[in-house]
Amino acid sequence: MNKKSYGKVNEDLDKERKKCTFNTTELTHLIEGGEEKTKERRELEDFFLSDPELNDIGAAGEYTSHVEKYQEAIRKSCILFKKIQDWQSYKNCGSSVDMYQSQSSNNLVNNNSKQVSNDSVTENELAKNKQYMVNIYLEYRSILGGTLGSAIMKDGMPFVVHYVMFIPALVGQGTLQQQAYWISRAWNCEIICTYAQTELGHGTFIRGLETTSTYDPATEEFVLHSPTLTSYKWWPGGLGHTANYALVMAQLYTNGVCHGIHPFVVQLRDEETHMPMPGIKIGEIGAKLGMNGTNNGYLGFDHVRIPRDQMLMKNAQVLKDGTYQKSPGDKLAYGTMIFVRVAVVRGVAASYLAKAVTIATRYSAVRRQSELKPGAREPQILDYRTQQYKLFPAIATSIAMFFSAKWLWDIYNTVTHELDEGRLEQLPELHAMACCLKAVCTADAAVAIEECRRSCGGHGYMTCSNFPATYGMVTAAETYEGENTVLYLQTARYLVKCWHLTKSSELPATVQYLRKATSRRKPWINSLHCLAEAFEQVAAGLVEVSASKIDVCSKKGMAPEDAWNSAAIQLVESAEAHCRSFKLNTFINVIETNRDLSPELRKVLTQLCELYAVFWVLKKVGNFLMYSNIRKEDVKSLQDWQYALLISIRPNTVGIVDSLGVGEEILGSALGAWDGKVYERLFDASNESPLNKKPVDDSFHKYMKPFLKSNL
Amino acid sequence: MNKKSYGKVNEDLDKERKKCTFNTTELTHLIEGGEEKTKERRELEDFFLSDPELNDIGAAGEYTSHVEKYQEAIRKSCILFKKIQDWQSYKNCGSSVDMYQSQSSNNLVNNNSKQVSNDSVTENELAKNKQYMVNIYLEYRSILGGTLGSAIMKDGMPFVVHYVMFIPALVGQGTLQQQAYWISRAWNCEIICTYAQTELGHGTFIRGLETTSTYDPATEEFVLHSPTLTSYKWWPGGLGHTANYALVMAQLYTNGVCHGIHPFVVQLRDEETHMPMPGIKIGEIGAKLGMNGTNNGYLGFDHVRIPRDQMLMKNAQVLKDGTYQKSPGDKLAYGTMIFVRVAVVRGVAASYLAKAVTIATRYSAVRRQSELKPGAREPQILDYRTQQYKLFPAIATSIAMFFSAKWLWDIYNTVTHELDEGRLEQLPELHAMACCLKAVCTADAAVAIEECRRSCGGHGYMTCSNFPATYGMVTAAETYEGENTVLYLQTARYLVKCWHLTKSSELPATVQYLRKATSRRKPWINSLHCLAEAFEQVAAGLVEVSASKIDVCSKKGMAPEDAWNSAAIQLVESAEAHCRSFKLNTFINVIETNRDLSPELRKVLTQLCELYAVFWVLKKVGNFLMYSNIRKEDVKSLQDWQYALLISIRPNTVGIVDSLGVGEEILGSALGAWDGKVYERLFDASNESPLNKKPVDDSFHKYMKPFLKSNL
């Protein structure tokens, strides 16, 4: 990001800000969860982004080679992680590191004699420990995940999995002794770790993984092996050339029996020389659409031996003689899986979409094009109804995502506490909502980001617009941590199950509508509550249709799996509709329960909420005509309502995106900068290209001139 | 593309091919327009792709720096263009070059004394000339545009505009003398040219361009100038460091009067040193989402003088004393503009989508994942209904595009002939169809390519899948050569105009349905003809709604432009619906008029056509419930029909994509290769990364080790 000052703010943008009718700070606080949260976030951003070492090369990274990109990512990562430790000391007086260090010494654990013994560890200690980790982890998340990290390294970071997956997995699956040893080393960055699960031939279906870990009681070791090419680990971030340890998921064999997937800590590279350990075949998987800073890698094992105590044994143990003992509950691992999806909704989908709408809206206020009135000045493109139709629903969607993400985070915390107390009731509901929210939010964000990019015409195609990297990050999240179609079907499975219970038992809050929705048939009026009801009717209608389709197929004698597969298209649609209905209700709820909202902000939020709803009704009007109390003759009035909303929102659009609070470095866009100096920044960005450093490139003399002259 | 042989074809893929029920060659010929066309295309591909110099680095290009990428693009372009000349000599015995060379000498035109005189040039000669150019140009198009070029340079080529825009523009706008001189030089590649129209601050709205060209009768020169930063030319391909001449569009001023936009040939760089000419400020615009091989550039003028005869004067002249004379007709320029859109429908949208569906389908036949039946082998993902729903409509769409592209090309040729005879009747219809087909086809292709990519899970995100470059190329076409929303609105303007004529006069073929569609209300049956009628009813209904909205607003006293803007969202939807209806009718027409189709192929094509139609009905079912004779109770039977079509198409899917005839080098994908050796190719592709050439990257010693050790 160019930090040069371009003088006064663009006049059009300045005018837009002056005509804003509400207090943008109030909206910022509401979105972020309070004034304190905004302050904290700003403090964090200032701490990291004011460091010239972390914010030095800016856009020029896209011109370097793949190897140079990697080296720069490592250089910056080292600086960043040192700085994270500084931040921790500054905020927590080093308590986190201290705690693990003292535990390490108390337990007399050292590199050569690690002992697995659960004797001295109570469940209570584990739970406390876990909560403590989650709190610290949250700070890491706000640094590494979401937007701050993307300001420092646009194309991903090779150390992230170390914190985001290795440490949480250790907490979830290691004994306290294992935690003490490994987390202490990881936390201090003595080692850099990754998490290796997915294989070249196996993704979603964990039971299909092929890597084996066979216990050898003679030496008290596990032997890790990759029996086929398709069993190579593939994708883990930082695995290529960065990590020296990995948590590897493998099929456990002991005494000739396969016990399924278990976690093993495996050393990949020598700590001094970084050379791959014997039997370790390792490298990076190559160039990708985006995230080229993450050093995703592959990993094959040729009979690699590790000590027995490097199997994580909180949930299951292999004794010295090879006896396999399963521990009673492994719900915590389930909780960890959900966690990443919860984090993606806010940290990726909502945050990156917020960037995109900010860039596109500011650009549309500055850009003038074509002719609305003959002879008049070219209008701001933000005044075209088609442009408003591209941007305003995306803005409303972004805000709806923030509110849903907050709900999801809150219920995640509640359920985690309940799990610690052994209560499992809310887990299926949380799981169902995390699945569909991750899927809908990443998919909507990806579509909307591309719409925003195209709405900026050719300039959106420039790397310096920051749309390409933004899209690359978000579309990756449509696939990782649960491919979206698979997640929709998981939510749908829950919905169909609930559907069958509507007559017999009480339903959880998010699905209670299944009972009543289809029976309500009132005349349509244009109101938020009528819209909310209609969304529920559509979701319920689609669930009903899918469930009946499955029933009909089953009655015809189809196997349950085939019956399920035959309804899969409608099932996906049901889960999506369920999620949209949830998002609308959550949005409405925020407006209605925040009683101290100023009337000005309440008005703007209501407009955005209405637009979110009306936009989706018209987008999916077929479903609404089929399953809700909307009739054909209502459609025109909905179109008029949408039209009126676009007009009402227009004067506040720049104010609304300003409220999303995306800072300059995080935005990282020539088109979206606060000052609106679009053309100056585009021009300066073009001159960062190394090709522009010389008037004539060497290739002219080497190739072109001989070619041109050969034709004379 | 890895040319290594991996032995036998993957077993699953082999089985798929064996169960295909129709002759894939028959479909290939139908799509390409006959056996002869397929033969020609293959001959062309063999000629170019068998050259090891043109097909040498393969995927490794993505690991190099920006400058290296450019230099490689220049190196290859020089080889390629030499080879194109060889091809021309081989096919045409050099006639094209000869013709222009003899004209040059006949007219005694040389570098120092170019004379503009139209005296000896008849209209007839110009027309003949033009047709001749178009024929030759077509061959260039099949080499440079579409898929062959992308096999040689995945990320675009810096010389393309020279052929694709400079030469055609000279044909359309230069006098015969100007053509003789400039085309001869361009054709022989003595000079490399580009076409500079778009400016940093001005795109679609040509009248808004700011670059000025002011005639100075004292020296008989034009003075080109860029009065502002926003007036810099921005985007032309090859402008950055490659071209030494450009055709520049500028506001012509003579005797103090502005006459609007006119074309001027301007020398940019010295022919010997390639240094920018005095007053020329030039460079590339920087990194982009894709097409980083095209060297798009910027260009500013500081009072740059050019001789009077470098204004192209076929359509308007400036005499020595500065007198401005407009020639009667400039329809040909209009024709040239349409031409590029016509080319994009087949060469970009249909061809690139064909690549994507081929890759995704073959991968889905090879990839096995999850569990349909407990205990059974993981199924091919092609057997999941959700996967079929992602891929099969995309396949049908790709085939529909090829047929519509053929229609568009035929009518383009007809209209061009008519224009030469001074007949203009069909031009508005051609223009309207070219606009909406370019918009719908590029937009549908972009969406479908991304759907195909995601359907391949994480592996689709790899550069070696070739999805990222494919998407980058196609999504660019959504914006260039007429931004899609602007194009939809141009078609809509034509539709509204025709709508008002329904009662009074005969309508052209493509809009005749406007008269009858809304009055037909028959009971629904599931048949192609009912579907086709329904599509027309929807298009007509949407046009009617838009037209009424404009009328109502106008009657309320709104200015015509505001009334238009207020209906813009519906107008876009009308144009889209019109286009989809057209595409369906064209598809049906191909099936019905090709009487010698084998019954097997006819069956498969009918299934694909039905799927195309049913998919879009269900996707936009709201519009069909609103405006067609489909009723709510028909929707379930349409869903069942769609379901049945997915099942019917399933056994032939691999055969169908094989018929699209995309060769290995053109496909360029580890996931989509003919042999289905997906995992072997992915693994080998990863090892093309230069990071994998050494076990330990230097950054470990330089950055990581000091960091890891500092924490001990």
TrEMBL record, chains A, B:
The keyword Oxidoreductase applies. Pathway: Lipid metabolism; peroxisomal fatty acid beta-oxidation. Coiled coil: none annotated. GO terms for biological process: fatty acid beta-oxidation using acyl-CoA oxidase; lipid homeostasis. Residues 334-496 form the Acyl-CoA oxidase C-alpha1 domain. Keywords: FAD, Fatty acid metabolism, Flavoprotein, Lipid metabolism, Oxidoreductase, Peroxisome. This is Acyl-coenzyme A oxidase. It is found in: Peroxisome. The active site is at E481 (proton acceptor). Belongs to the acyl-CoA oxidase family.
